[in-house]
Amino acid sequence: MKTSQQDPHDKASSIASVTDDAEASLQIAASNPNPVTETINRATSHISGPDAFEPAATIEAPKGEEPYREAGDEIFDKVSRGRKIAIVAVLSFGAFLSPISSTSVLAATPEVATTYNTSGSIINVSNAAYMIVMALSPLFWGPMSQMYGRRIVALSSSVMFFVLSLATALAPNLASFIVFRAASAFGGTAFILIGPACIGCKVFIEWLLFQQDQRGAAMGWFLTGTLVGPAFGPFLGGIIVTFSSWRSIFWLQTALAAAGFLGVYFVVSETAHHLKIDDLKTLSGKKRALTILSMISPMRVLRLFQYPNIALVAGGSASLTWNMYSLLTPIRYVLNPRFNLESPLFSGLFYLAPGFGYLAGTFVGGHWADYTVKRWIKKRGVRVPEDRLRSTMPFVGIIIPGSMLVYGWTVDQEAGGIPVPVIAMFVQGVAQLFCFPSYNTYCLDVMPGQGAEVAATNFFARYLVGCVASAVVLPAIEVLGIGWFSTISAAYLIVSALATMAAIRWGKCWRERMEAKLRNSRDK
Known about the structure:
The protein is mainly α. It has two domains: 10-38; 81-277 and 292-523, Up-down Bundle (Growth Hormone, Chain: A). It contains 22 helices and no strands. Helix 3 packs antiparallel against helix 11 (247-267), helix 5 runs antiparallel to helix 6 and helix 14 crosses helix 21. The longest helix has 42 residues, at 482-523. It starts with 7 loop residues before the first helix and ends with a helix. Residues 1-76 and 202-214 have low confidence and may be disordered.
């Protein structure tokens, strides 16, 4: 078994990290007469590593030899491969829950509106409230998971999701329904954030062999739950509301939340090798509390939007979420009248088209991203994170906008019958799985030391835009018609494709500026 040599860039980052810690200690010492007990003792390891902007180097063994391993990697051999796969399965199941809840009530919107004596548009406001809480929650869960660990965050969030799902099922009036439903999103979204952070961290690279040129496929499989959930949720809701009360949707959601908690409790172990809370044991009570507040502050996530490549990629990912929710939200109000459908079950069948598209895209989308990365490695001789974004261009710039136009105008002009919108929705589902893995994995590649926080920027942008889509889609379609609304959505996707092109073209330069800015701040 060979041991890899430390990459010079990693060595420089480690020195800079030590310099930071020394400066932090001096500052604390200057403000406190007892510096010995007030020093932050940051325990670094080959797994936790320093926060760095450059991607970790991929070191491959010479042909015919065993892969290189770093000293200390034997810690991961203590867990069986079956247990490792089970952990990923539980996290994927947890990531499925909040997205499916975001749309499961769509097929039952008229029934919920009747119960509370209101309109479908008002019920869709509850969906928008749910989405905005989904957008805000990563700002808290991301820093919390790095501070206290991913397992405790997963357990806490699943308990919260269980309690609030139960409260939603029992909601006696419209106000309590909206409040409990929106609050449940705060608990359910943590799994969506934890999964990509695990896939991107050194622990899971060792556990499941997700090397740099294989992360796209791994991310594609994980994201299946987050994307299939919104598509299959309305179908499941349609079945339930056809044969039972709409409240049964939330009783089922409560049971699934309980299953998620049990899965985490009995299967998932802590994947973070080092917790930031351990660095603060020597601080006094007040200073420790202030340091914790600064470390879990949502501003740690929001500040990352100052970097153009992260902001543009988050915007590209958000455009896909706009497409998803603007497509799924109005189906019962748009397609039922178009094809004279009366049963919620029949309209729920339309949601299967994008859902099966997401499933089909899972098998090929991530592999396409990895293939693109490998092709450019062979061309250049070096891996550049922006090359992964090239895999999205034909889909976000041409295929998805084109499918949206076909869907919108054939329904608007009553042309083509049922097969045309079904095929258009299926194609969009497949194409989105050629894009989401690349956007998410790029965020992990450019700042591997802050995986959870960078992933939080992506999900914050996605669900914030999804909130807007859920709130405005029905009023906009009533004013503009489905054809022109689809045209606006297609234009938005094309603009996001141009933004992605900018990240591909200038991303390396922006990353170098980020690193220089970080280095200068350390030198001050």
